[in-house]
Specification:
By secondary structure, this protein is an alpha+beta fold. It is about 65% helix and about 15% strand.
């Protein structure tokens, strides 16, 4: 005859066995889920690493192209224009005709202006010059190129400055450079204000203009090369935000992650 004690023992043993089995199943499911999450994470990391490598390659190709064009302007085109200028001077020395001299003088002035513009373009494209200067110095030089009676441009710096690294500096410079170009060429801005805010964990760059502005929703579907290049570089630095309103200007904010 089965006693109540034996029944209790059997029930207890059965319950413990069932509990162990349930715990075993939970453990297996937990381990499976953990491996699944690890696998997904690894895939995302590989995808992110691949995207970064593609971005890096695209940016390097662009910089090499900029460098080549810069050197071509400096070494060949500028030299050819200098020879043309010398030829004009020599021709001017061989004539006394006032009309001819006036035309040659005008040509010389236009040629000098063209050479100055090409020299500025060469400097702008040459990333090697940026590497030799601080970010503030590079941006100040860039603003010097665009300042005139109709364009006011200002740079302000807050916080304790530090070197963010050569690669990040060039990426940031290119974004600001493109922003300035867009503000002048497309937005028809008359005022550009650039702000650098140094923090212990990063650098915040803001580029604000008083140009025409635009609808940021329409911009999301834009395939413009300038904006695309800015976004490529911003991904390598951290993040970029754009706020703009029609006839109220545009502000571009770049958040650069650093170690201080």
């Amino acid at each position: 005859m089965i006693t109540s004690t034996k029944v209790a023992i059997v029930l207890t043993f059965g319950s413990l066995t069932l509990l162990v089995f349930v715990l075993f199943i939970i453990l297996i499911l937990f381990e499976y889920r953990k491996r699944q999450v690890r696998h997904i994470t690894e895939k995302l990391e590989l995808k992110h690493r691949y995207q970064n490598e593609v971005l890096q390659t695209q940016i390097e190709v662009q910089e090499q192209s900029f460098k080549y064009i810069s050197e071509e302007i400096h070494d060949n085109i500028a030299q050819m224009l200098s020879l043309v200028k010398i030829k004009i001077y020599k021709t001017a020395g061989k004539t006394t005709d006032e009309n001819v001299l006036s035309g040659l003088n005008t040509s010389t002035e236009l040629l000098s202006k063209t050479m100055d513009d090409l020299r500025s373009l060469s400097h702008i494209l040459n990333g090697g010059l940026v590497s030799k200067l601080t970010l503030e110095e590079s941006l100040e030089k860039e603003l010097d190129y665009v300042r005139d009676d109709d364009m006011h441009a200002e740079l302000t710096v807050k916080g304790q400055t530090y070197d963010i690294g050569g690669e990040k500096k060039l990426l940031a410079f290119r974004i600001v450079q493109e922003s300035i170009n867009n503000a002048i060429k497309h937005a028809k801005a008359q005022n550009i204000n650039i702000s650098l805010v140094y923090k212990t964990d990063g650098l915040i760059i803001s580029i604000a203009d008083d140009g025409k502005g635009f609808d940021t929703e329409l911009m999301k579907g834009s395939n413009g090369l300038g904006l695309h290049n800015m976004q490529l570089r911003a991904k390598m630095l951290g993040s970029m935000g754009i706020t703009s309103e029609q006839d109220k200007g545009t502000t571009i904010t770049i958040n650069i992650q650093t170690n201080g």
